[in-house]
Fold these 2 entries.
Entry 1:
Amino acid sequence: MITSNHNQVSNLDRLTKRSVRSFWMDGLWDLVIGGMLLIIALWGLYYIKFVAFPHWTWPFLQESGKSIVWFGLLFLVLVLTVYIWIMWNVLKILKNRLIYPHTGIAVHRFFLPMDSKVFVWYGISYITGLVLLYGLFFWIKGGFSVMSIPFIISPAAILVGIGWFYGIRRYLWIAGIGLVLSLLLELLVTTQANYMAGPRNFLDTLPQWGSPTLPCLVWAGLFLVSGLLGFINVQSQEREAKPAV
Amino acid sequence: MKPNQQFDLSELVEVDRIIHEPARAAIMAVLYGVESADFKFLLEMTQLTKGNLSVHARKLQSADYLTIEKSFQNNYPHTKYRMTRLGRAAFRAYVNKIKWLSKAVGE
């Protein structure tokens, strides 16, 4: 009994992680988050269009002045609320029809069971990464891009955290690809100098007005791909597991 | 007692006997990760047989470590299991004790 203590603990830990992991395995969560990020990115495109290039927008929007920015934010919140409500119901139907008959039903905890020491180290690493990126951006681009950095690093941090703690390999891949892609796009495509000289096109405005737009587009695409991969994977596993009639 | 001190056999006796059975420990481990789960979910996760799962879950229920709710969903019986606060504390204590024992015997 004593010699198997270590195995016993690691087996129990593995089982707990497996039950937590089941929440993400079907890929539906990824699809919902991907859709949400896509809405934010598309909204960002219109926002840039209005604020930086008013002559691109409809005349009545120009006449409304800056209040339209607040109206736009309100509109975004409203769209996201409606989206979440619709997706909540769509998810319920999809889970009941496609997932639960095979996996059974589990109600997942809002706060994940996690060791407090690990949580503290995770927080310290996240803040360090944030500070380093601010420094890197300031050094390369010659100005602060306050908005874009949290949008670049936060999805990566969430994916790495979940992927690492609960053993979901596809999240680690997506986090790596997303981080590199969004960093390269932000650092190489957009420059503060072009904006200061007077934006000529859409890309020149990104550092100032629409900085979350590019990272959101990258992450939205990757979350949607990840969701589809997860969903296809779970469905094909279930087909294989079905006994031959 | 710290792990590097002399190992006391009485520590072994203090291990929670209700949880210290592989099937019951597996049920507790799965339920520890979620708010609640149904019979099918527990069956898939633990790979126990239906009979074993029922018997061991009832044993855990009698120790107040989990609650069992029976209902009907679309005319099918549906059983939901939820770990109690006492169960969570007992499982945490059990895992800590086993970890401690592992260190004490130098595994």
Note: Helices of chain B lie at 10-13, 22-33, 39-46, 50-62, 85-104.
Entry 2:
Amino acid sequence: MSQVASYHPVLDPTLAPPFPQAVLPVLRNPQLRKNVAHAIDVIQAKRARLVAEKTDWQELRSAAAAIRMHALENLGYYLELFEARCTAAGGTVHWASDAAEARRIILEILRQENAAEVIKIKTMTSGEIQLNPFLEANGVSAYETDLAEIILQLGEQEPSHIVVPALHINRSQVREIFARRMGLKDLSDDPKELTNAARAWLRKKFLTIPTAISGANFLIAETGGVAIVESEGNGRMCLTLPKAMITLAGIEKVLPRFQDLEVVLQLLARSAVGERMNPYTSLWTGVTPGDGPQRFHVVLLDNGRSSILAKAKERQTLKCIRCAACMNNCPVYRQTGGHAYGSVYPGPIGAILTPQLMQMHHAQSLPYASSLCGACYEVCPVKINIPEVLLELRAQVVNQERRSLSRFFDPMYLGLRIASFIFANAWSFHAAQFFGRFGLGLFTRKDGWIHSLPSVGGKWTQTRDLRGLPAQTFHGWWASRGPRSGKEAK
Amino acid sequence: MRASLFITCYNDTLYPETGRSVVRLLERLGVELDFKPQQTCCGQMHANTGFRGEAFSQAKRLVRLYRDAENVVVPSSSCVAMIRDQYPGLMEELGNDSLRKDFAALLPRIYELSEFLIDRLGVEDVGAYFPHRVTYHASCHGLRGIELGERPWRLMARVRGMTLLPLPNLERCCGFGGTFSVKNAEVSSAMLAVKLQDVVSTGAEYCTALDNSCLMHLGGAMHRQYAGMKTIHLAQILAATEDSPAEATV
């Protein structure tokens, strides 16, 4: 441990401010909001068009949901099968119970390989365990090879999306980053020119760095193989040239059979980027003499996943295939982008995954970062009922608050507790309506509207008015109507 | 046909004109309505904020209160979604056998207003007259929660004199989300601004919906921004006739 230096964590839920605070700098950044909304609208429309052309979309969703749930309910079995098959094919499987252990295992392998540099296929899981800053602090330079990840790495920015990590950056900003970091003063913001600059920069890395790190879209238990899905081909470069490959994968990524890919791959490309098929799907199993990496390691990461697995309602969170359809269709994400979620997993899936990976010790504002509109559930290709999990997590947050002293200072908590007594009986409800009308009457202007309220009410009136309470409630009107004559009510 | 009106807590307090319109409309269609003055709230606010125990108490109260009702009509899609989506879990977790049995028997007799009109009464033309330009906000709970589908449009198509203007980005949330609107007031307001832009772009005089909670949100912003349009619950449009037009809205 002594040789493991400290590092500055990134997108760390243990340090991130609560969501309502974290959104403020974003909401005050019109360029970023425009970039995010534009990108989201384009992806959303493409997805909708391609989903509409699949007549069996709902059947595919049901099949994928069943496959994923079956894998999770038998996870131990399939992981051991994967380990046996992968080992038989010449791979080495490592088990990491948490982020620190995974980082140590990867560093150990890199030291065996005498690697001072490593190229990386895009992986969100490496962001989850904050691998890059850790490697940097331990003398290993990690180079991202996914175009968006290169932009972020060179621009020293954080990912804001799991499929399109540089979604919040537009091309003139990319031009600025490339020109500055690659020393290309005359670079224009023509996408072709930008791509060529990245290609030239990347080729040097591919040709000189013999060690690579990847994530995994899927682990296949039946074959012991790994699948990676991408659009640029840079991942495939990382799979052909290097001598050694380390794959980092969450334990939930396992599929039982090779043929299950048929279902999930149809859903993934359409859901993620609105394409019928992604350009590059790479599958590899162990090592093949004379072809590709000759030393292959898989690091299976738990990091809180088995505790999620143990809970009946929350388990479905692990069905996720990281397509990002939930965030692409989320009206909250559309306004905030990804950084406010304080984790590499933003959007609705992040709002349920991050608090659980943190075992509810941090990120307690995330379950509330949703209007519960249900768009995420509607588009989820594996039918994760995100609103249901959000509600379950909210209940856990409230149950923690019930035991803490802070509840006495939280107007929302007190208000809801009082409201529960008010709603317990008609007389208390009617009394509250009476006193509410009196109290709000003090704030009601002559036009019958309330323009400004104190405390929690001020959160409402900062952007909206509230109609003053009418003189007569509905139940008051009903009672005043007296016995009905059977004629039309007036 | 007999039906019991569950008006919901916020309609009772804030939007009694919606309730009065439901009464006018259903009595005009020959429904024998009753109203239980003991009713309070369905528990949605508590359930959606994480107060499950409190939500269950209210759910239990509602199930017991309407146990013997022939039909229950609710002019709020989010409250119906609460009953359909969340009550089963609450009953399973916190209820006893007799309550679960009562709930299972009651559930199929609970109708959102447009469901009651089309599925139960079998009417599309309710004899309404509303000579105005109107746009319809589908509201998330109506659209995805209880999947009202074509029902609201079938009803609106038969309203004489009304020009229905399609709302762009119909499926997008207005940002209300109950306590979300104050817990995440800034994000909620940003979502509202986008929705209001779409609503105003239709050129309608009124924005209607089957849920006054979205309309409270939209209406509050319309009033703040002098948007030159108003909100109105669909019940009020459906209740309006040549002889007795919709109640004036503030």
Note: The first strand of chain A starts at residue 92 and ends at 96.
